[in-house]
Amino acid sequence: DVGVLRSVREPPLTPDEFDKKLDGRNPETGDYLYKFTNGGSDYRYVAGKYRETYQELLHDVDRLEFNGLGWNDADARQFVKSLPYCGKLQSLFLNDNDITDEGARLLCSALPTMLVALDMRNNSSMSFSFTIPYPHGNT
């Protein structure tokens, strides 16, 4: 569409998906798609650091905001893969995206049990819009 800007901030890749992306090669030349100063030895280091950081950050995060990023159902499907790593997630904000009813159902089926706030207002492709507020009205 003319005038539609797609966000470059995609949902996080799981560590296994990041490994696969990092190992990607040009089908014609066999060269790695991502080049590092020290060649192959850096690949494992970078993959290990990503895994470590991903697990530490997502495990301890209690609030995530992905508002206005143009996420669609494919992005929701990708994000759902990260939810099992979110051990302390209490608040999730996905306002102003392009998630449809299908994506919303997928997200809701995978939410952590300790979640107390979910905000999916103004998703232009959903037939409904909702907010699950904090207890006692604190948002």
What are its keywords?
139 residues; 4 strands; alpha/beta
Would you kindly provide a written description of the structure presented here, covering whatever features stand out?
It is a single chain. The protein has 139 residues and is α/β, with parallel strands linked by helices. 34% of the residues lie in helices and 8% in strands. It has four helices and four strands; from the N terminus they run ααβαβαββ. Strands 1-2-3-4 form a four-stranded mixed sheet, with no helix packed on it. The C terminus is likely disordered.
First CA to last CA: what distance? Answer: 35 Å
Quaternary structure type: single chain
Total number of strands:
4
Count of helical regions: 4
**Strand-residue proportion:** 5-15%
Strand order of the largest sheet: 1-2-3-4
Mean pLDDT: 85
- Helix content range of the residues, please? 25-40%
**Class based on secondary structure composition and strand pairing:** alpha/beta
Radius of gyration: 18 Å
Topology as a string of helices (H) and strands (E): HHEHEHEE
Q: State the shape.
A: globular
Low-confidence blocks of residues: 135-139
Write the layout of secondary structure elements.
Blueprint: H1 15-22, H2 40-60, E1 63-65, H3 73-80, E2 91-93, H4 101-110, E3 117-119, E4 131-132
Parallel strand pairs: 1-2, 2-3
Antiparallel strand pairs: 3-4
